[in-house]
Specification:
The chain is mainly beta. It has one helix and eight strands. The N and C termini lie far apart (26 Å).
């Protein structure tokens, strides 16, 4: 499952966790690194997102269409990540 989150950043989920591919580097999070995945709604209703909450770090948010967010949350749940499906408002 893949989605573009920020310009030139590619986002993917796989069996090991979440991968962010930047033009000149890659960052990844294992499923154990994610404490919670939360469905988020921006102030301007232009889509939805999934906020990956991490211990001792700022959360990472991926913006996508609603059906893609639902699939992301399903995969998180399948890998033991706590999921909150009620939309939380974000600026």
């Amino acid at each position: 499952m893949m989605n573009y989150t920020f310009p030139f950043v590619r986002f993917a989920l796989d069996e090991d966790g979440v991968v962010f591919r930047f033009p000149f580097s890659t960052a990844s999070l294992g499923w154990r690194d994610i404490t919670r995945a939360v469905l988020v709604q921006p102030m301007l209703p232009v889509g939805k997102g999934v906020e990956f909450q991490l211990p001792r770090n700022q959360p990472l948010t991926v913006w996508a269409a609603g059906d893609t967010c639902a699939k992301i949350l399903d995969l998180c749940e399948q890998h033991g990540v706590e999921v909150i499906r009620r939309s939380a408002l974000r600026i």
